[in-house]
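Notebook entry, structure prediction.
Reason for the run: the old model in the group folder had no record of what sequence produced it. Starting over properly, with the input documented here first.
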Amino acid sequence: MIESFSSPQSSNIADAEYIFESCLLTVTFVKHSRYEYFNVPESIWHGFKSASSKGKYFALHIRNNFRYSKVF
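New structure, fully documented this time:
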């Protein structure tokens, strides 16, 4: 299953997508770069999705905590 959200109110995060079967989180930033984060627990996805500040949640719970790869 795949879930996604867009975040037009965020100055940093444009949108994100999570693939439950592979625990893969894909984040697209406002500046049009996209990164894949590997082995992200479902609980982190749910927290990210419901956070009032996507950028703050990303900085505290995702960035530098998971292996990642730049897509573009």
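Summary: The chain has one domain: 2-70.
The old model has been moved to the deprecated folder.
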